[in-house]
Amino acid sequence: MSASPVYLDAATAAPPHPVTRQALLAALDDGWADPARLYGQARRARQLLDAAREAAAATLGVRADELSFTPSGTAAAHSAVLGGLLGRRRVGRVLVHSAIEHSAVLHAAEKHVAEGGSVGPVPVDRLGRLDLPAWSAAVRAPGVALAALIAASHEVGTVQPVAEAAEACAEVGVPLFVDGAQVVGRVPVPAGWSVLTASAHKWGGPPGVGLLVVRKGTRWESPWPADERESGRTPGVVNLPAVVAAAASLRAAAADAAAEAARLAPLVDRIRARVAADVPDVEVVGDPDRRLPHLVTFSCLYVDGEALLHALDRRGFAVSSGSSCTSSTLRPSHVLEAMGVLSHGNVRVSLHRETTEADVERFLAELPGVVAELRAEAGVTAL
């Protein structure tokens, strides 16, 4: 009898929180009508939408009228970047961002450049930490309309110095957009940002719901055709049952976040130590201290990342390899390239509320043999 599958890719999508299922099913009964209409069913839907917004805003510590729901975290990131640039187009057309932003931010930056704007990527060190002096110089350059910084790397888990980066932005009046996809619902959100985005399925909410928060006083203009919904920030009718489930699960995940972090961090420490000790020619990447509590990434020399992914999948382990959000391309992860670290045989392991110590031990027991087999198939044996 084969062992049960072990899911270790929460950084892509966490398993649904129990509250997600409960809230989604309950909202399907009352949340199917258009909340913009005036009849009874619509008024009930409107009450659900308003309550979801209030709950999500309270969890994040923001005003309800600053928060909008979007069709995804990617849509929220696109809106954040393009809307922030559009709102300050009279100031300039320069977007400053770290070299390790999520592909959603980089795709929005590409669109900006195609339309005549410019970008200023800021480097990181080998641990994936932002070069703060370079950042400070970049945001002080003429014509900077917006700065974008990921709160914590989705690939290697390094937590960025958001507070310091925000201070540099504030000194010159440049608004800061923070991609909070990997921190919202898991660790406290850093202060100092003007625009924040998140994605519900990262904290165990349903897929297809993003959060866009624009602070009062921030110059931001919707880059999409005019629409009266969601304060004009994102077009179309929201998926109300999913929105209700997202807000409810965010509150539940945030309430348990500190305890979960305390439980998962030692398991990640164990993975970092054992992989380095038990697998020859491996590099554990990312900051060993200033990092997310649930995520670890390592690279194995002489091993193809996709082959390693499939081999682990055959053993029952679901993990990511390389840049999970740019896997449709043949080029290595832009994050690992920017860090200057090994990108061969890259594996990202990310834990969640259902991950057990036994799951981690089984992964650590089987990984060395899987890597050795793949190296032997490639003719690499004398290690």
From TrEMBL:
Belongs to the class-V pyridoxal-phosphate-dependent aminotransferase family. NifS/IscS subfamily. Its cofactor is pyridoxal 5'-phosphate. Residues 6-363 form the Aminotransferase class V domain. It catalyses: (sulfur carrier)-H + L-cysteine = (sulfur carrier)-SH + L-alanine. PANTHER family: CYSTEINE DESULFURASE (PTHR11601:SF34), CYSTEINE DESULFURYLASE FAMILY MEMBER (PTHR11601). It comes from the Bacteria. Keywords: Aminotransferase, Iron, Iron-sulfur, Metal-binding, Pyridoxal phosphate, Transferase. This is Aminotransferase class V-fold PLP-dependent enzyme. The lineage of its organism: Bacteria, Bacillati, Actinomycetota, Actinomycetes, Micromonosporales. GO terms for molecular function: cysteine desulfurase activity; iron-sulfur cluster binding; metal ion binding; transaminase activity.
